[in-house]
Write a structure and sequence with these properties.
The complex is a heterodimer. Chain A has helices at about 1-30, 35-60, 80-95, 100-115, and strands at about 65-70, 140-145, 160-165, 175-180, 195, 210, 215-220, 225, 235, 245, 250, 255-260. Chain A is an alpha+beta fold. Classes of the chains: A alpha+beta, B mainly alpha. Strand 1 of chain A pairs antiparallel with strand 4 (about 240-245) of chain B, so a sheet runs across the interface.
Chain lengths: ~270, ~450
């Protein structure tokens, strides 16, 4: 019995000593800017030691003790409930004796509440037509993320690149994929070249995967799949409409450029979209 | 010393009676009653590590060129936010450790809330008079999920940027006000120029303040109403039997606290989490695959993947498909959780106060419903990584989507049937609470005498 108690006390002591060692180890590891594994090990040991000590203390050092609490009973006695209601009704009756003043108070509070909402308007601009347009215009040349302009014969069959309107690299609304489809595949191509908005019409992710074997554009976020050979119609997945197609033309000096903006809003749908 | 402080306090505030009862307050002993405390302790870890991180993090989209110690990104253009997270990770002593502990503690925080809620649900601790505390708990769960999302969205790495773009699209899908809300939150441009600053205010001030308030009220109500207990000898609707708050329960709870912190430290030190330097800075046209959110957003991610691709066009307006998974589903789930205590009381015709808990078997229909709801969420959660599973199973992604659509509808039905039957069968057989307890006394003659107790 005493032997067991002694062992248990030593276990608690061992936990406390482990904690001290861990704490010191963390300080040293921190001072020496050691790897985070060493620093974390020290911290972990410091807390794990206390865990062991507290567990042992609760289980073995403290006597087992049970207490019984009586719950407060509620609802509270009827008399007190009545007094409460009475106090409220009395105060309310006094307060609202002048009805027309009360109505004015409601008015003042309502207007002030409405006025307090107005600064919310500073948060952002009101929605304008930015969701309906991109920076593509007739005659705007295609530019890659690295700044290079795109020429007519830059792309091999099955090739795909990401392009922006010249000078707007990174603009999310305007990001576009340019592909070259195999001969005889697809419609509305410009000598095999075709361009679609890169913003997924489901949740706005970049449609960044392309399987050339069946001209399938896939969004890596929720796996919406679009048929690049057929106006980027939705084949699979949660997207609810096709990727808009960017009309293309070739400039007199051989650069690929837009023949206009996307015919419909790019990206995920919104309330004002038709 | 503390003794003198107690007496000093009583001289000024008259606290002796309250503290006397407080120190001897009974806390019923059951391991599952301590699940909720995990969250308090994880939250403390979050506050401590979060304060450290906030001293370094720069909530700005301003473009800079990286020239820190991580050579692979040197010379790359990135936002100040991402740059400062790289700085914390590579240049601040113990910075990466604190960052990883913070992220792990967040995952534990939400997980702890879910497990705690499961305990409350299956033991029916949400019944009158505890409906309000259930509601606060549900709100805390959603607040914690939102807080976690804002947290891992701030570093402006490629993964978080994509997550924000998806969230933005979901916001945009809300009928009537969606476009307005999106413009107000992001300033109307993408990539946004002010979003991280706003996430930062939400993440380090507004949400922590609300969560602290919620936890405080949650605990005050618990204190006032006293803890529930399982039926057993001496335990009635009118009393609470358990360890005294001081010293036994205090030491036990302290042990749990040390355990939670030790676990967070071990995970933070040895298990890498969200290595943002591998994802690279957010660039609008880049994506990574596979891409998954933190686990507690997984059910929404899964729902976005397997939802029907229906858009509704009405009177020249559009409700796009992310509405179903991103707005309707979480709205319905939250509403269902909020009204559950009242709905069950109404359906079962039992609106009276209860302080003795049920066991899961006691009300098979509730248990069946709970398990079915869990399986539904599990199906959505698993669907959130269907692309990864498809790769390992060598199955087409479309088959996976179809499979999870079936799973999410048939799974809950089967789960209800199985768990209902099991609970009903167990109920028929009875259990420890029904068996009679006896005190066994050995007589001087060597025989035994039985005497029922309880």
């Amino acid at each position: 019995m005493t032997n067991q108690a002694a062992i248990r006390e030593r276990a608690v002591a061992a936990g406390l000593i482990l904690s001290m060692i861990g704490g010191v180890a963390f300080m040293i590891a921190y001072a020496k800017q050691a790897a985070i594994q060493w620093q974390g090990l020290g911290l972990c040991a410091a807390f794990a030691g206390l865990l062991i000590a507290a567990l042992g203390w609760a289980r073995w050092v403290l006597p087992y003790e049970q207490v019984v609490d009586l719950r407060d009973t509620y609802p509270q006695p009827e008399e007190e409930r009545e007094q409460m209601v009475e106090a409220y009704e009395h105060g309310m009756a006094e307060l609202t004796r002048r009805r027309w003043l009360v109505r004015l108070l409601y008015g003042a509070a309502g207007i002030l509440g409405l006025a307090a909402l107005f600064p919310v308007g500073s948060l952002g601009p009101q929605p304008d037509d930015t969701l309906f347009h991109t920076r593509w215009k007739r005659g705007v040349r295609l530019q890659r993320a690295d700044g290079a302009l795109v020429k007519e014969d830059d792309l091999n069959v099955d090739g795909i690149i990401t392009v922006f309107p010249e000078g707007s690299i990174g603009d999310s609304q305007s990001m576009t994929v340019l592909l070259r489809l195999p001969d005889g595949v697809g419609k509305n191509t410009l000598g095999g070249l075709i361009a679609y908005s890169k913003m997924c019409t489901h949740a706005g992710c970049p449609v960044a995967l392309y399987r050339a074997a069946d001209q399938r554009l896939v969004c890596p976020c929720h796996q919406s799949a679009f048929d690049a050979a057929n106006d980027a119609q939705v084949i699979d997945g949660p997207a609810d409409h096709a990727l808009p197609r960017l009309p293309l033309q070739i400039s007199s000096d051989g650069f690929v450029e837009a023949a206009g903006d996307f015919p419909s809003p790019v990206g995920p749908g919104f309330w004002e979209e038709r | 010393m503390i003794q003198r402080l107690l007496l000093w306090a009583d001289d000024r505030f008259g606290t002796a009676r309250f503290l006397h009862h407080a120190l001897k307050k009974a806390f019923p002993d059951h391991w599952s009653f301590m699940l909720g405390e995990i969250n308090i302790y994880a939250f403390i870890v979050l506050l401590a590590t979060g304060t450290f991180l906030a001293l370094w993090f720069v909530p700005a989209h301003t473009n800079v060129v990286y020239d820190g110690p991580y050579t692979f990104l040197r010379g790359d253009r990135m936002s100040q936010a991402y740059d400062s997270v790289l700085h914390i990770s590579f240049a601040v002593n113990a910075g990466l450790l604190i960052r990883q502990i913070h992220h792990w503690a967040a995952n534990i925080f939400v997980a702890g809330i879910v497990v705690h809620m499961g305990r409350i649900f299956f033991t029916a601790a949400f019944r009158n008079p505890r409906e309000l505390n259930w509601i606060i708990g549900v709100l805390l769960l959603f607040a914690a999920m939102f807080e976690g999302f804002t947290g891992y969205s701030m570093p402006d790495d490629l993964l978080s940027g994509i997550g924000l773009r998806i969230a933005d699209s979901i916001l945009q899908s809300v009928p009537f006000i969606g476009t307005w809300a999106m413009f107000f939150l992001t300033g109307g441009v993408w990539p946004p120029e002010i979003l991280i600053q706003r996430l930062f205010v939400l993440h380090v001030f507004i949400m922590p303040a609300l969560i602290t308030l919620g936890i405080t009220v949650h605990l005050m109500i618990l204190w006032r109403q006293k803890h529930t207990q399982f039926p057993g000898p001496r335990r009635t609707e009118e009393n609470v039997v358990g360890s005294p708050l001081f010293p036994t329960y205090t030491v036990k709870s302290l042990a749990l606290q040390m355990g939670v912190i030790a676990m967070c430290c071990a995970l933070g030190a040895f298990v890498q989490i969200n290595p943002v330097w591998l994802w690279g800075p957010y660039q609008t046209w880049r994506a990574i695959s596979p891409a998954q959110p933190d686990w507690y957003i997984g059910w929404l991610e899964g729902a976005l993947r397997i939802e029907p691709h229906w858009a509704i066009h009405l009177f020249g307006h559009m409700i796009p498909s992310p509405f179903w998974a991103g707005v309707l589903l979480p709205g319905v789930v939250m509403l269902a959780l909020l009204v559950y205590p009242f709905a069950e009381a109404k359906l079962r015709g039992d609106t009276g106060a209860h302080h003795l808990l049920n066991r899961p078997r006691d009300v098979p229909a509730r248990t069946g419903f709970g398990v079915a709801a869990f399986v539904f969420m599990l199906a959505l959660f698993l669907a959130g990584s269907d692309d990864v599973q498809a790769r390992y199973l060598h199955l087409p992604i479309n088959d996976m989507v179809l499979g999870y659509r079936i799973f999410s509808i048939a799974g809950p039905v089967i789960a209800f049937w199985i768990s209902y039957s099991l609970a009903a069968e167990l109920k028929k057989r009875g259990g420890v609470h029904e068996s009679e307890r006896v005190r066994l006394t050995r007589t001087p003659e060597g025989g035994y005498e039985e005497e029922p107790i309880g």
